[in-house]
């Protein structure tokens, strides 16, 4: 017989699905269950944190460069490290991230910070360059830079409005001179190499006479490089 001062602690054996700790009492279990319930309520009511919206910190601006220079077009963005970046010129894609499209050559490069680098620019590089950061199929942000490449003037064409060079006395003569270059060239006209007889893209002579027969020259100048000129000879019969 056990001494009277010994007592026996009776307990139920834990089930196969229940962890048992002999020092873990029923009151402690109840407290743990209450805490678990509280945590569950918090999880159910708590929304997942919203991801910060991407932003482009760069402001679109105009860039002016001379031929053969290198141009840097910035596109600094925040919260966009995992998003896709596109660069395009006048709507034609240049880059998707660091992948260059085939219709653009090695003169176009992309820095890791999204800066578009254009080397050895030429007159035909003038245009609108857009940087777009795409967060979904229907959501994107973008900025557009305008690039102007300074180029010396060139005469595209010089001709009479009706494409003839021989006129009868009293007819109307209209000469048109078209030139390219940036800045836009100023066009001046001379007759027989002497004096200025007009300015602008065209000149008009009403009631042409024999004294108006001779060589007309248009000269295009934009202070970049050497002025361009071309002549046309008009006959009057």
TrEMBL record:
Record keywords: Immunoglobulin domain
Ig-like domain location: 54-142, 153-235
GO terms assigned for molecular function: cell-cell adhesion mediator activity
UniProt-annotated stretches for the region Disordered: 15-55
SUPFAM superfamilies xref list: Immunoglobulin
Gene Ontology CC: axon; plasma membrane
Residue ranges, compositional bias (Acidic residues): 18-50
Pfam families: Ig_3
Database matches in InterPro entries: Ig-like_dom, Ig-like_dom_sf, Ig-like_fold, Ig_sub, Ig_sub2
GO biological process: axon guidance; dendrite self-avoidance; homophilic cell adhesion via plasma membrane adhesion molecules
Superkingdom of this protein's organism: Eukaryota
SMART domains with a match to the protein in the record: IG, IGc2
Name assigned to this protein: Protein amalgam-like
Organism expressing this protein natively: Agrilus planipennis
